[in-house]
Amino acid sequence: MAAVGGRGSQSQPEPRSRTPTLGTTGALSAETLEINRAAIELECTRLSYSYPAIKGSPAKPVFHGIDIKVCKNELVAIVGPTGAGKSTILRCLGGFVHPNEGHVYLHGQEVLRPSSKIVLIHQSIATFPWMTALDNVKLALTCKKVDEKEAERTAAAMLDLVGLGANKSSYPKELSGGMRQKVAVARALAASPSILLMDEPFVHLDEIAAEELRREIHSLVFNPESTLDAVVLVSHNLTEVVELADRVYVMNGSPATVIDEFGIDLPRPRALRDSSFLLSVDHLMGDLNTPKTKP
To answer: What is the pLDDT, as a whole number, of residue 294?
Structure first.
């Protein structure tokens, strides 16, 4: 969703810190401990938008009472029916969209604007056809004022990390869809982010290429050479979600709210035909088939 009702005219709130405080017993409260262990979190009481092209159009509620926490070294997925606002949640987490009532915190500090610490990979495979793989990755360092040699070294290291070191001089037309998406991942990691947001990153790949990249993505993004603390994935593919995620937030209703928070404690790599795997997929399918209700 591109526009949020009334946000352009509102002044930004002052940043708020989530510095730990002692409870009455002298120990950290359970709530504070939960805040401390969250790499990124969204507290959204209400988000609404209006259509700017239609004068006087009423604001449409999108979310109601969304509360999402993602911990260090966690890959969290968000699922829900089409139009539930899953991609809008990613934009809230990235600072591109601001809740009417609510806040986003990165390591306890409020997020008020986009930052290189939070990187979004779109569902479209975004590589520039006139640039080599190396130059596509170097783009992530343009705004950081990194000198040319350092930018080239970092970009080459990230291409090595995703298994494309031998293809740094190749142009996108010379790469498969899966390889181009790896270039996008390498570019995201080159910015040294703390959080990686992924919006249907495999949807435009053929199933063989998508499955190959899914098998690799967890080890790629949580590699010791990367700076990532956590990943948030939006997907309609429940098999993909169970294969990758540590926890899943299920959204439903209108306005949307979180109806389930489902943990997936299966060993990696995950066997897609294992009974526990299939039960997890069935559980999520059951959530999505729950009748929509208004909060």
So the answer is: 52
With b for 16 or more beta-carbon neighbours within 10 A and e for fewer, the 29-56 pattern comes to: eeebeebeebbbbbebebbbbbeeeeee
Nearest to 41 by CA among 97, 116, 105, 100: 105
Could you report the per-residue pLDDT of 232-241, keeping only the tens digit for each?
Answer: 999 999 999 9
Token pair belonging to 77: 């997925």
Joined tokens for residue 100? 């009417």
Q: Give the pLDDT score at 16.
A: 45
Do 99 and 12 touch, CB atoms closer than 8 A? Answer: no
pLDDT tens track for 19-73: 333 233 334 344 444 444 689 999 888 888 766 656 667 778 888 888 999 999 9
Report pLDDT for 91.
Answer: 92
| Domains along the sequence of the chain with CATH | 72-97+109-288 (3.40.50.300)
**Axis-axis angle for helices 177-190, 207-221 (nearest 10):** 20
Burial class (CB in 10 A: 0-12, 13-18, 19+), 288: middle
User: What single-letter amino acid sits at 188?
Assistant: A
pLDDT digits (tens, 9 = 90+) for 97-149: 888 888 999 999 999 999 889 999 987 777 899 999 999 999 988 877 788 89
